[in-house]
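Justification of resources, computational component.

The compute hours requested in this renewal are based largely on the per-chain cost of generating structure records like the one below. Each record pairs the submitted sequence with a full structure-token output. That output is archived, and it is also reused by downstream analysis tasks.
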Amino acid sequence: MAVAPYTVLRERAGRPRGASRGFAFTAATVILVIVVGAIVGDRLRESRSFNAGSPAAANGDCGAQTSQRDSTGHLVGVSKDTTTILVLPLSVARPEVDTWFDWYMTSAPGTAPLDVYAEYGDGSRIPPTLVMQTGPDRFLVRLAFPKSGCWRLHAERAGGTLSGDIWLQVLAAGATASADYANADCSATSRRDATGRLIGTTGDSTAILVSAPPDLRAGAEITFAWYMTSGGLASPFTVYAQYGDGSRVTPRSIETVGPDDFRVHLAFPKPGCWRLHSERIGGKLSGDVWLQVLPSR
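The structure output for this chain reads:
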């Protein structure tokens, strides 16, 4: 066996130990860059696929890419992980008007925030104007689309470790909408308190509680016991009901019962999902309740 000369052994022994550690650090850095590059590349390929290769980039029509609906009318999200995404549009999506969504997306814990954006085929994005949690894994999301065409609605929870997409066709003004939004059941969109009153969704300090009969039928006048606070200020109370196609009806009459209590008499002309919007202090306080109105007998 050959023996290394003494001078060679001395040179090897004299090398700093940090050299090997430096090599290990450099190797780890290279591996990290490769991993991050792969993730970014995957995201870029997804984005390019949507922006350049999808029907949205060609003519603004989602076509077959439009998300499928389940038996209850929810759009079914596409995800690469364990999350489940079900999105119920509460109105027809049209440009420059508010479109509301009942958004279900699972996560552990169920209280994790929901992050959403909408992306057009040209890569432009818009954030929601409201995201409000209404229960474990359930949210109300409001979006105002600036133009018609195919939009990808991207949602994330748990810091982005859970994510998925919905493809939605936003109709041009005057375009005929399908009946899907009318057939969708929004009876569970608004939560109820312990006494059965519907809890209003608000973005301010007001509290809204609405008592409604269990059987709501189109064409029949319904009386609602409506509680809406105004911070101790005496102020008018206004209400309207909006259908998924944007049409509205106003109450026949509103009776003042107390400072924050009112009796609202309202008839719905057709069955389906209705948003009941109420305001006080000239609209500075406002909120919404969703109701499912059944066909007339």
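Confidence is low (pLDDT under 50) at residues 32-59. The chain has two domains: 59-183, 198-293.
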